[in-house]
């Protein structure tokens, strides 16, 4: 792994804004917001946070984290 790879692995990735516009929560069908620090897509309506792994949103309700 090069130093560049190490640096980019430590930095949270950005989600393409066009992708974010197209995605909706599979539970509520509502909009999602992007939490860059946590690498999650958040549905306030459903109170769920969907993980983003290796730049890929995991839009499965059983993989989502329940929000308080």
CATH architecture: Single Sheet
What gross morphology would you assign?
Answer: globular
* Mean pLDDT across all amino acids: 86
Structural class: alpha+beta
The CATH topology is: N-terminal domain of TfIIb
SS elements, strand count = 5
Gap between N and C termini? 38 Å
Number of domains: 1
Portion in beta strands: 25-35%
Low-confidence stretches: 3-8
**Tally of helical runs:** 2
Rg computed from alpha carbons, rounded to a whole number of angstroms: 13 Å
Q: Which CATH class? A: Mainly Beta
- The helical percent reads 10-25%
The major β-sheet equals: 5 strands, antiparallel
Order of helices and strands: HHEEEEE
What does this structure look like?
The chain is of the alpha+beta class. It has one domain: N-terminal domain of TfIIb. It has two helices and five strands. The chain has helices at residues 3-10, 17-22, and strands at residues 33-35, 40-43, 48-53, 56-57, 65-66. Strands 1, 2, 3, 4 and 5 form a five-stranded antiparallel sheet that branches. The longest helix has 8 residues, at 3-10. 16% of the residues are buried. Residues 3-8 have low confidence and may be disordered.
Topology:
Elements: H1 3-10, H2 17-22, E1 33-35, E2 40-43, E3 48-53, E4 56-57, E5 65-66
Antiparallel strand pairs: 1-2, 2-3, 3-4, 3-5
Which properties best describe this structure?
68 residues; alpha+beta; N-terminal domain of TfIIb; globular; disordered N terminus
